[in-house]
Specification:
Blueprint lengths: L1 E8 L9 E8 L4 E5 L6 H8 L7 E6 L2 E2 L4 H5 L2 E4 L11 H11 L4 H14 L15 H13 L5 E5 L7 H16 L3 E6 L2 H7 L2 E6 L2 E7 H6 L5 H9 L4
Parallel strand pairs: 3-8, 3-9, 6-7, 7-8
Antiparallel strand pairs: 1-2, 1-4, 4-5, 9-10
Helix pairs in contact: 3-4, 3-5, 4-5
This protein binds adenosine-5'-diphosphate and magnesium ion.
The site of adenosine-5'-diphosphate has 11 residues, from helix 1.
Length: 241
């Protein structure tokens, strides 16, 4: 579960808030899609939930643990796939995963099992013995997906995860998201692409200029006079620019 209460953030020298009074609750067992145009505040929100940025005001809880008060406990519940895949180029894939697993205190037998499972799913088994520096963009992305899951996080957060993935891997990633949610975990991912959100999510939130402008289940949005998500998105994010 993720709970944000009245969270705001303004970057130094910025004239406007990047995130403005965001209140939102994402439940266990739910895949939540965080949709918004470029610059809306998605990554800033995600960086605050993962503890990379500190909010100016407001509170964030991960499974009931207050992030500001208990940062280590809160962060240990989270797996994070960032939108850039800056991983250590001079390590082998498997070394990187072992390093991450050790940081989270995963016992080595369990770690090996998880690495095997996810590496075969993403067809990365052979590549793990190669240097990360030799990987394609998609392979780095897959490595960072695997790295986020080795400690079996209760909350999985992904920033634009489907951008740049090949169709096979995108399919596997979507299945993994559903599998995590079915286990009772929380999945939160951002996208500026409507189709992706529409196909995968249980509930969506639309953010624009740092403010949450709509939150609902996809079923409700569809039932509501047959408004498509696309037209809703275009209407509420239209600001004459
Ligand atoms: N490091 C930063 N310094 C200053 N402004 C930033 C920084 N990162 C993002 N912003 C600004 O904050 C706003 C929200 O950005 P961001 O959260 O990255 O949006 P999104 O992920 O939805 O594209 C934008 O106006 C962006 O230009
Ligand atoms: Mg972003």
């Amino acid at each position: 579960m993720i709970r944000l209460y009245n969270v705001s953030k303004t970057y130094a020298k910025a004239s406007q808030k990047a995130v403005d009074g965001l209140t939102l609750e994402i439940k266990d067992g739910e895949i939540f899609g965080f949709l918004g145009p470029n610059g809306a505040g998605k990554s800033t929100t995600i960086k605050m939930i993962t503890g990379i940025l500190t909010p100016d005001s407001g509170t964030i809880e991960i499974n009931g643990v207050n992030l500001a008060e208990n940062p280590i406990a809160a962060k240990s519940l989270v797996g994070f796939v960032p939108d850039n895949h800056e991983v250590y180029e001079t390590l082998k894939g498997v070394e990187y995963l072992n390093f991450i697993g050790a940081m989270y205190g995963v016992p080595s037998a369990a770690l090996k099992e998880k690495i095997d499972e996810y590496a075969s799913l993403f067809e990365m088994k052979n590549a793990l013995s190669d240097m990360i520096g030799s990987y394609s963009h998609g392979m780095k992305q897959k490595l960072s997906v695997i790295a986020a899951l080795v400690h079996e996080p209760k909350v999985w957060i992904l920033d634009e995860p489907l951008t740049g993935l090949d169709p096979q891997s995108a399919f596997q990633l979507k299945r993994l998201m559903r599998a995590q949610a079915d286990k009772g975990n929380t999945v939160f991912f951002s996208s500026h692409v409507i189709d992706v959100v529409e196909k995968v999510c249980d509930r969506i939130g639309i953010i624009n200029h740092g403010k949450l402008v709509a939150v609902d289940t996809l079923d409700n949005i569809r039932a509501d006079g047959k408004v498509s998500l696309e037209s809703l998105f275009l209407t509420i994010t239209a600001d004459g620019e």
